[in-house]
Amino acid sequence: MKNSNPLLAASGRATHDRRELASRVERYASPEGGCGRWHPRLAFYRAEAPEPRLSMVYDPALVLVAQGAKQVILGGEVYRYDESNYLLSAFDLPAHCQVVEASPERPYLCVKLCLDMDLLRELLASAPAALPGATGLGLAVSPLDPGMLDAVLRLVRLIETPDDMAVLGPLVEREILYRLLIGPQGSRLRQRAVAGSRSQQVARAIDWLRRHYRQPLRISDLAAEVAMSASSLHHHFRTVTAMSPLQYQKQLRLQEARRLLMSEAGDVASVAHRVGYESPSQFSREYSRQFGAPPSRDVEQLRRSLGQQTASA
To answer: Which segments constitute the HTH araC/xylS-type domain (predicted)?
Structure first.
């Protein structure tokens, strides 16, 4: 006899969809992640062990965990997301992140869809008015509903049929963005996309900082660039990013320095200069405060930790 309870039926369908999504993510994922191999805005990631705390810039994206759990630390707050919820980043946000649940038997698996901001702006004209909600910090974790899970799974399935992806992929992406707009984070996304809004002006300031982070920063010049007063820029920038523009620039510089030290042969002083520091000693002090150890020791520890994970995988 079939189960006539719609709640139980929906729960069973969601469980089936999560398992299928995990299977497909495991098929496509690589430790490096990255968009472009399967779809210009889709990326898949896998980890077989908990990771050391890493630093990265979260670009505007929806992230679904098919298996395991991860946490993001931004502004002193910890945002944990797993199979029951999704992470939404509406801005480019420097943050710390860490896979906290993963094993060879049950690896951490996730799918990321980078947000098409042009499509988002198109949808604003037809989407229903957003329910009252937070419009502050540009990152949030929300419960994953079956409709969103189903839409993301359908998009991932299309990888198997590239001809269908070319035609149906944009339609499913549109549905996913629509579901975000009418969901608990809809107000956050709307403020990000609406021309002339404070959040949109902050987005322009963020874009400028990402392109010019090596240059000396004058807040008055940045405020003029995005048509805001210096005090208004400082207030709204901190509301969205949990940091000041100067702190944001420092995060970008230090993250890039860590990447360079990990990936290239170069001394600390030259790397400090490349990311915009005039004083190597100031760079070393700020690097130590950020990552908990001086540059050379931090990179050595990080390489050892990542090497151990690779060897055990």
So the answer is: 203-301
